[in-house]
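Handout for the seminar on molecular recognition.
Each group receives one record of this type.
Step one: identify the two inputs.
Step two: read the structure output and locate the region that could contact MD3.
Step three: write two sentences on what you found, then compare them with the reference statements printed after the record.
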Amino acid sequence: MAGLPEGICYFPDYFDRKAQEQLVDDIRNIVREAPFYVPEMPRTGKPMQVRMSNCGALGWVTDKQGGYRYQPCHPKTGNPWPPIPAVLLRLWDAVAGFDAPPEACLINYYSDKARMGLHQDRDENEFSAPVVSVSLGDDCLFRIGGTSRGGPTQSVRLRSGDVITFGGPSRLLFHGVDRIYPSTSTLLKDGGRINLTLRRVTTKSG
Ligand code: MD3
Ligand code: FE
């Protein structure tokens, strides 16, 4: 079996069951303050399949009018995003290898049928920091490609508690979520999958 592309570090089962349950508690408290909303594609306004919220100084949002962007407040409530839980700041310190803390934590919720098409994450100004991803709940089939669309891809099944980081030469790889495997985890009472992505958005020079 081929290895993962250079720059990707995979930590299967980084969080044990108890830590996963505590993280879900943290996320439930966050989404009570900053509810999941339906992101829209720029220009077309087509709804995305994933439900989104954020915590941290900045959150990634998208809607028909404003397009992809980071902003300090929730697009529906106008309130600042809740802080990033301490356990995720510790995770970043342990695995990111970057000397500044994450500014954004995007929270994606996938129901059984939700997918996310192949894309690059390039709305950040700081590409020398990795993106750190945490999976919770049902398994998913995650696809990783190259730096241009249409090249070869490989797939990884991500499970609850897994952490995967995308740094260095992997930071701008195309990636997406092809499918959720329903009822493969008992972590979330109503099923589905939550993915957290920790990101650095701004550069020190601004
Ligand atoms: C590879 N989320 O929110 S996380 C996203 O599972 C996103 O919800 C997926 O892609 C999810 O943008 C995948 C893994 C991930 C995140 C960022 C990356 C993989 C990446 C950035 C560069 C390369
Ligand atoms: Fe992405």
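Reference statements: The longest strand covers residues 104-110. The helical segments are 17-33, 86-95.
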